[in-house]
Fold Metallophosphoesterase.
Amino acid sequence: MIRFLKIFFGTVFTLLILIGSCVFYAFKIEPYRIASNQLYLNEKTSDFIKVVQFSDTHIKADFNYKNLDKVVNYINKQNPDVVVFTGDLYDNYAKYHDDEHIIKELQKINATYDKIAIWGNRDCGGGAARQYENIMQQSGFTVLKNENWYVTTDSDKKILFTGLDDSMLGNVYMPDSTKIYDSNYNILLIHEPDTADSFQEYPYDLVLSGHSHGGQVNIPFIPAINQKAISSTNLAKNYVSGMYELNSKTKIYVNTGIGTTHVSGRLGVVPEISIFHIYL
């Protein structure tokens, strides 16, 4: 009996240590890490443009400008030609914002040609709608809302970026489609990934989105937890993380974001910077 109790309490103690370690990692370590995904598209020539995407920073008290500085430095190390932000700058602007420091950090991002941003649902609510565009413009970003924007490379190649408004709290419509054919590569920027299904007839090569956070928690061998987290996120159920074939011509990539929302933890979904080498 004594031996049994020793084994029992030893097992319980080990499990508590394991659970405590996982909780500590999920709240204190993983949310402050950065992973990069290098993707190579249309590898047919030696001429390419490097597009770096980050998304869903969800700036708040426990993830502030000091944490954003690490993200900015990581982006700059990639030597990007174009930097794209796919929405959700603050988590809740009414509860926490620090525009002065955030602008100073975002201004540090360097790109050969341009920095482009679109709206996320968090940029439309909590008072953010009155400030978001001004913040991003002061930070050197071109803010698109149902607009086309062309970037021309030093080799005279043209890349189209179409940025749409937020699908949940904005007013989404496609800009004049007659203008999207005179380009070497077409990229559609949306915040909520499932919105892409509504624009499959347009000749885009790549769709970039965020919003899902990849569910924030993805424990191996327990998929139900990740599925439950994903099910609570609107317009991010069909495309959750990584690359998908939208149709025979178009790919969609879902960036799992930098910050956290609802719960300030991540487990198995490391904050992500996406680097696209797009051959022209």
